[in-house]
Amino acid sequence: MKIYGVALLAACFLLGKFLGNLLGKLININNDIGGVGFAMILLMASSIYLRKKGWLIPETEKGVWFWSAMYIPIIVAMAATLNVKAAVSGGFVAVVAGIVTTIICMLLVPVLSKIGRNNEIPKT
Amino acid sequence: MEIIEKIISKNGLVFAFLFVGIIMLFSFWISKKLLRNKIPGVAIAILIGLALAFTGDKKGMADIPIFAGMAILGGSMFRDFAVVATAMSADISKIKQAGLAGIISLLIGVTVTFFIGAIIAYFMGYTDAVSMATIAAGAGTYIVGPVTGTALGASSDVIAISVATGVVKTIFTTIATPLIAKRIKLDNPHAAVVFGGLIGTTSGVVAGLAATDEKLVPYGALTATFYTGIGCLLCPSVFYLILKFLGF
């Protein structure tokens, strides 16, 4: 049943958030420190484990796939409900930060491309 | 009219599904027909979302009663839930396929982007650690930004800036990739794997590579899919703490 997939997702989500908040508490910052990231790792790990055991059937997975496919529409809804009027003054930051970071990363492509390449393709 | 308003206000979330569906349909139509897939439909949809937010104030268009459901659909609970669900498509065997260069480029991509983004945010007047981290995370992808911002308690306008930063990156990547490809030797699968890891915005990487050489698309997407997950893990935790540690 699809709900098993949704329930698995919910379990990973809540446990991840719990770990995030626990970590925040431990280091005295009362925030959620990486909870979504923990939840993603939990979901990856549990789905691999359950697949190996043969317990994760496609029907169950569909419950997770649905939510996975919903994330772009949800981001659109989120974008429409942000305080953009107050953010206009920061619009320039968005353009500068978005473009500068991208250019720098693009320029790193030829540098990092060298890694592992020589091992895979022996020089002739 | 009164009846319609009553139905919508009582079923806000359902109306939001319909409304966002229409935005998506419209955005992908524009992307395909008017822009010949030069700019991904996803980026257009988010831009339309941001533009619609101008119709309201603090809560964007959700300030208008009939659109109140948009705040439920776009709230942090559904958003984080859906983002976590995307981890399902991340296949561990694929990361092995990407190899060492793929993993290193992912880590360097997320790290370099975050800290350069944070420096830019700082020099442009966002000097507190939470705002810096949120905007810098947005320079990663438009998902890492709001996830980080919500986790750290950033204000809605800073989160809006982080989303806009991510959207700028997506559009810029789409346009710039085919122009810069030769110069950065982006002409083989190995370089595409590295490129995907460094840039990370999946929609931008896919659209940019498609405009460069369609054969490279799957290689770039391979690493880019992991970027948001790694960003959501590192930005609100280790990276934020480093900013704190540095005294911001």
Question: Key features?
Answer:
heterodimer, A: 124 residues, mainly alpha, 7 helices, extended, disordered C terminus, B: 248 residues, 2 domains, 0% strand, globular
Task: Give an overview of the whole structure.
The complex is a heterodimer of chains A (124) and B (248). Chain A is 78% helix and 0% strand. By secondary structure, chain A is mostly helical. Chain A has one domain. In chain A, helix 1 (2-26) crosses helix 2 (35-53) and helix 1 (2-26) crosses helix 3. In chain B, 76% of the residues lie in helices and 0% in strands. Chain B has helices at residues 2-10, 12-34, 41-52, 69-73, 76-85, 92-123, 129-140, 144-152, 156-180, 189-199, 202-212, 217-245. Chain B is globular, with a radius of gyration of 19 Å. Chain B has two domains: 2-74, no CATH class; 85-245, no CATH class. By secondary structure, chain B is mostly helical. In chain B, helix 6 (92-123) packs across helix 10. The mean pLDDT of chain B is 90. Chain B has twelve helices and no strands. The chains are: A mainly alpha (124), B mainly alpha (248). At the A-B interface, helix 1, helix 2, helix 3, helix 4 and helix 5 of A face helix 2, helix 3, helix 4, helix 5 and helix 6 of B.
Topology:
The complex is a heterodimer of chains A (124) and B (248).
Chain A: H1 2-26, H2 35-53, H3 58-69, H4 71-80, H5 84-87, H6 91-113, H7 117-120
Helix pairs in contact in A: 1-2, 1-3
Chain B: H1 2-10, H2 12-34, H3 41-52, H4 69-73, H5 76-85, H6 92-123, H7 129-140, H8 144-152, H9 156-180, H10 189-199, H11 202-212, H12 217-245
